Amino acid sequence: MAKSDEELRAKILDAAATLFAEYGFSGTKVNMVAKAAGVSSATVRRLTGKRAELFEAVMADRVSSSAAERVASDVEDPGDAPPIAVMLAAAQEVFASPAASWDILELEALTRAHIDPRLCDVEAQRIGRRWDNAMSLVSQIRANGGLDAGVSDRAIVQLAIAMSAGLALLGPVLDRKPSMADWIGLIARVGQAISPDDMILEPSYEAREPWRLRLEITEQPGSLARLVRALASLHVYIVAVQIVGHGDDFRTVDIALTAPASVTQDVILAAALSAGRHAYVGEGSPDDALDLPTRVIDGATAMVKTPEIAPLAAAELVEADAVEVASAVEGEDDSPDVLRLQWTPERHVILQRSWAPFERAERTRASALLRLSSAIAAASANEDSLGWVESIKGGTIWIRLARPEDADAVAAMHDRSSEKSRYQRYFSITDWHGTKLYRLSGGHRGATLVVMSEAGKIIGLGNVFPDPSEGGHAAEIAMIVEDEYQGRGVGTKLIRALLHMAARLEFTEIVATVLAENTGMLHLLRSTGLEWNSQIHDGITYMKATLPSRMEFVEADTGPIRLTGAGAAKKRPTRKAPAKKAARKAPAKKAPVKKAAAKKAPVKKAAAKKAPAKKAPAKKAPVKKATAKRAPAKKAPS
Predict the structure, then answer these.
(1) How far apart are CA 612 and CA 176, in angstroms?
(2) CB count in 10 Å sphere of residue 360
(3) Which of 209, 320, 503, 516 is the most buried (most CB within 10 A)?
(4) 194: Cβ–Cβ under 8 A, 6 or more apart, which residues?
(5) Exposure pattern of 504-518 as b/e (b: 16+ CB <10 Å)?
(6) How many other C-beta atoms are found inside a 10 Å radius of the C-beta of residue 186?
(7) How remote is the C-alpha of 365 from its chain's centroid?
(8) Lateral strand order in the sheet of 347-352
């Protein structure tokens, strides 16, 4: 059956497109196309014309640009897509895949247009269509109030087309490309530069999609205003803003916002990176409009009625993906995306979040909420909530569970301590600040105790670490006491409290690693009444003792338990951790992300630095998941 001219033409164009791509315009002849298509040269010329017309036909029928088509579509049907959002999305696509925007045949036509009048006419028409579409977008931006009056619309369009063509030309040969985040951040910054100083846009788009944005901005006046300005160009509305962390030269800001439905996660991220760094974008919730004090009061009110919901209230407060109440010797240690808090001596609360790392302020807030639950328990005469009040030479001390907000005070105590005291604790004279302070202050398995002076300063720190080298039954203890309080009985009280905690956590052996020259600590350990086995190797004394299954206590006058050591005093049954309750669902008004069990994202957990105690492999208890879902966060590449 003879083929129709339409079928023959399609076959010719297919063959020509392949040959032009392989050999270029100058290397492709009509007879080559005819042979590849299985027709005569006369048929090629009759249906498509000479080589220039054939090339033009291939360009029209076979060469397209996804980025250009996106712009054209939005120009024809603007819908609810803000023009800046369209341009940023196109800029991302062009950078990620230049060939998708400028086909190799089109690039060759552009270069040959300088010497071939026919091709010059063809490309003038094609570029003209791109120009008209880009000009329409720019006109929309200006009509909405998004462009400075002194900036030429034509200059903007010329810059956009030239940059996209340049990217496509340089793509195959340039190996020093910036990251996508840097590129889009630059494009967004250019957009800010050409917008008016007092930019107030016309409310032309419905902004109903909730998003959460977190990023670092510079510690300078006007840095937050610059961020808000960048987001405003996308026609978003700011719902709530809070500062959740800070460093020497930056602040971490958390923003709840609503945006038009067409403004994607990537576009919001691009705009944010033009004004900051380390940005995270995730789906928000309608409840994000609730201010922080309201959320805190709601959580506190619920805890007065039901104190055991404190972990769920803490998870909601910091918008964790998952919450787990674990044994003090199980679960994951503290890391950027894991927040571990000591709730009671036997139980720790472990919060996890994938969409952004936990910031310092969030750690403090969650800890404060658990502390409130302890205060409620104290009002109900729960002795565990208070700790131990002890007499020492010349005063009184208070020993209690450590909290994340103790980190600065623990650091200050170390700074006040002598180099000798720090060396005896960490076996090193290097900068101790490299130690993970949050872990040292309670973010690890086991238990951490701090010693408070009458003036309210932390003057001592003690740790009970599970020791994996001795099996799950052994714990290593370590401590440091500020020099000013050494020799006054602080160490004696603290070591006994650590042994008490180890017994409550059902460890049956205690190990300690002490410098052989540290005679004070060796004497303190031997004074506990335990039978220690000691070995000395390379100037370090390794000590091990069996911990009685029932430690012996007497009641202090103040109410909390005070450890008195091993002896013949009256016995008191060891307390057991309360049985775990059935999993509770997080309150529905907050929408934490449902977290995949096997993955941790987007922030990689820093390797734990031991100081110097060892830690046991994590025995992960079942995670109590929140039921509401949040889309995975988009993280800016590092």
Answers:
(1) 43
(2) 17
(3) 320
(4) 147, 148, 151, 156
(5) bbbbbbbbbbbeeeb
(6) 15
(7) 18
(8) 338-342, 347-352, 322-327, 624-625
Q: In which residue ranges of the chain is pLDDT below 50? A: 1, 385, 552-632, 637-638
Strands 447-452 and 458-466: antiparallel
Here the tokens at position 548 are 């009685």
Residue 388 bridge partners (DSSP): 399
Query: Quick one: how far is CA 408 from the chain centroid?
Result: 23
Cα–Cα distance, 322 to 595 (Å, whole number) = 7
Dihedral sign of CA atoms 600, 603, 609, 610 in order:
negative
Q: Is the peptide bond before 592 cis (omega within 30 degrees of 0)?
A: no
Q: What is the pLDDT of residues 157-168, one digit of tens each?
A: 888 888 888 888
Count of alpha carbons within 13 angstroms of residue 586, beta-carbon side: 28
> What is the reported pLDDT for 490?
93
Distance in angstroms (rounded) separating the CA atoms of residues 133 and 53: 25
**Can you tell me the distance from the alpha carbon of 552 to that of 625, in angstroms, rounded to the nearest whole number?**
39
State whether the Cα torsion 482-488-493-498 is positive or negative: positive
Nearest to 284 by CA among 324, 255, 311, 244: 255
